[in-house]
Every structure is written in structure tokens, then in C-alpha cells.
Amino acid sequence: MVHPLSRGKDRDSFEKEKLTPPSSLLLSQTDTHTSSNSLYLKMEKILITGGAGYIGSHTAVTLVEAGYLPIIVDDFSNSDKSVLNGLKTILNQEVPYYEGDCNDRALMKRLFTEHSLKGVIHFAANKAVGESTAVPLKYYRNNVGSLVVLLETMAEFGVTDLVFSSSCTVYGQPDELPVKETTPRKDAESPYGNTKKICEDILVDVTKSAAGTRIISLRYFNPIGAHPSALIGELPLGVPANLIPFVTQTGVGIREKLTVFGNDYDTPDGTCVRDYIHVLDLADAHLKALEYLTDKPGSFYDLFNVGTGNGNTVLEVIQAFEKVSGKALNYQIGPRRPGDVEKVWADTSKISEKLGWTPKHSLEDALRDSWNWQLALAKK
Ligand SMILES: NC(=O)c1ccc[n+]([C@@H]2O[C@H](COP(=O)([O-])OP(=O)(O)OC[C@H]3O[C@@H](n4cnc5c(N)ncnc54)[C@H](O)[C@@H]3O)[C@@H](O)[C@H]2O)c1
Fold this sequence. Notes:
The protein is built from 12 helices and 15 strands. By secondary structure, it is α/β, with parallel strands linked by helices. The chain has a domain at 11-223 and 278-307 and 347-360: 3-Layer(aba) Sandwich (Rossmann fold), CATH 3.40.50. Pathway: Carbohydrate metabolism; galactose metabolism. Its cofactor is NAD(+). Homodimer. This is UDP-glucose 4-epimerase.
């Protein structure tokens, strides 16, 4: 389906043009938590679990721009309803949402009854590695349990297509770099990492058993950045566990200083290496994955790395941040943090060849967008 909204807009054109759906595509929406405002008619609907979260909200934008209607379900356990306002301003239109837990079968049934879904993207999960070690059952119940409920509901309603959020954490410290999809997974370092491995295994089993189920797991490397409008971005609750929110919070003065965990690793400057991928490029990978599934025969499973193919050290990230923000970052070198992988970056040839996906944003683009998002948050 060709949609009138333009795709792949750069940051400048976003500023210049407003996304306005033509009135012929509007319908009145009463079955979800939207106002009496109108919504897009005849657009294929994609359920986004965890759609109010960091990656889900950016994927909602990408889907609308590509002509789909995302339906969000989120319990707001790790997000804020203000995200929905951000989406509304970016899209000039509300995105319908259901407030609730994906483990709630009755809710999921209601949702699948009320909407004819083309497919599902399953983001909803808990993702704090440290917390998962302290309360593993919370992670197994939510991350594994919600996938099972979702798959059972999809089977009941004949919805076949699913894109699942996995993680490069399944590789641990890989024996080969860059990491290919065929690189063996390692024992998980945390219950969180283990839930991703278990979920991947469940998906393989399901595609082997249930005719017609078409599933892709995307193994994300390190998502960073924000929408260039600075209306949505990462919203870490409490002290951020990831580098970039810590960097931007230090830059804006919320944190006094950033500690770099170790500078004696076997890397160019001794600090850990990661593959940082702009969240909008990641969102685009979900779109490409969904569309790739469309013409696949029944019972299909595949998995793809989603990264840039480049690794950057922590000190390179700090230098790039200082360049784009014009701020000198207050940081110190501390001891290694237990459980940190020394270096990991993706081989992206498979996703590039099969899905036709390549990242469009640089590290600097992503850091600029993260910084502008942080500045916008500071004004709130
Ligand atoms: N951000 C990363 O660095 C990263 C890396 C690899 C994989 N992932 C995976 O990507 C997915 C999305 O990550 P994110 O960074 O957007 O996280 P996020 O916490 O910002 O988004 C997840 C959303 O899911 C919601 N949620 C959680 N459990 C739910 C439930 N049972 N029912 C309904 N809603 C629920 C939360 O409120 C939140 O809005 C997760 O599965 C995560 O494990 C993230």
C-alpha cells in the first residue's frame, strides 16, 4: 500500500513540513484510548507491544510514515504517557493505544477482536540487566510469559507475522568479530539475557510446529539517538544503566560526572567497544522485517543483527558528544564493571542483503539527536 506521507525524511525536511494525513484517510476512533479525533482509514494495522517505550515509539512513527496504522499496547511500567503527546505532535494525529499488560489474556483477546491485525512487533519486556539479577522471576514472567500469551493469542486469531526484539547480549563476548548471526550464542550473563535466548528458542519451536507462523528476531546492538524533532526519545527512569543517557544527563548537569568503567581492555584506547545504532535506523529495520515476511511461505523463521557494522570506544563516544554538543564532559576513569563485554560489533551483511536495510545515521547524528532530546527534557 502506498501511503501519501513521505518516507525517509531527513531532519531538515521534518522541520519544514508537517505530517498531515488527507481527510479521506480519516475515521472516527472510539474503541481505544484516543480522543474523538480521527484516525487513518483502511491502513493495515500493526500491533506494537511496548509501543510507548523508547524503540517502540520511534517504530510507531516509522510505521505511520510507511502507511501502516500502529496500535500500541503498553502498561507504562517503563514509559510515560507524555510519549503519546510527542507522537501526536510528530504525526499530527493520535496513535491508538491500550493501557495494560501483555500478560493479560483478556486484554490481548479484546485487542485482537477489535482490530484485524496484519502483524505484531513485540517490544514489551523488562530490560534492566542489573535488576534482572536481583529479581529474575519478574523477568522470566514478563519477558517470557508475555511472549507466550502473545503467540497463543496470535494463533487463536490467525495472525501470523511477528517481529521480535532480541539483543546482541545473546552473543556475550563473541569469539569472532564482527559478530555474524551464525556466531554461536554464549551462556547468558544475566537473567535478562537468558530471557532473550529463551524467547528466540520459543520462536524457533513455534515456527516448526504451527503452520503459517512467520517470525523474525532482530538482535539489536546499542540503540541510541532520538527523533530529530526532540519530541520523543529515551526516557530512563532513575539512574541510567546505558552510556548515552548518562552522557547527556551529565552534559546537562543532572549527573555530576560520568565514570568510564575500565580503560585497560584490549581495544584501541582501552575502553569498551560497542556498535551504536540510531533508533530510527532500528525502527526502519522493523518495517523492513515486517514487509519481508509478507511474501514468505508459512512457517518461516529468521534472525538478523541490527547494528552499523562499526564499533566505537567509550572515549570515542565522549569525544563525538563533546563535538556535537560543544560541551566538555566531566568524566573519570573507574575500575571495570563486572559483566561488561570488552568489545562487540555487528556483521550487518545479512540484513543488508536480505532485507535491503542499511543504517542512514552517523554516530554524530545520533548523539546530536540524543543531546537535543535531553535539552528538550530539561525545559519540561
Ligand atoms: N534499548 C536497548 O538498549 C535494547 C537493546 C536490545 C534489546 N532491547 C529490547 O527491545 C525492546 C524495547 O526496548 P526499549 O529500549 O524500547 O525499552 P523500553 O522500556 O523503553 O520499552 C518497553 C516498553 O514496554 C512496556 N512494557 C513492559 N512490560 C510490559 C507488559 N507486560 N505489558 C505492556 N507493556 C509492557 C514498558 O512500559 C515500556 O514502555 C525490549 O524487549 C528490550 O529488551 C532493547
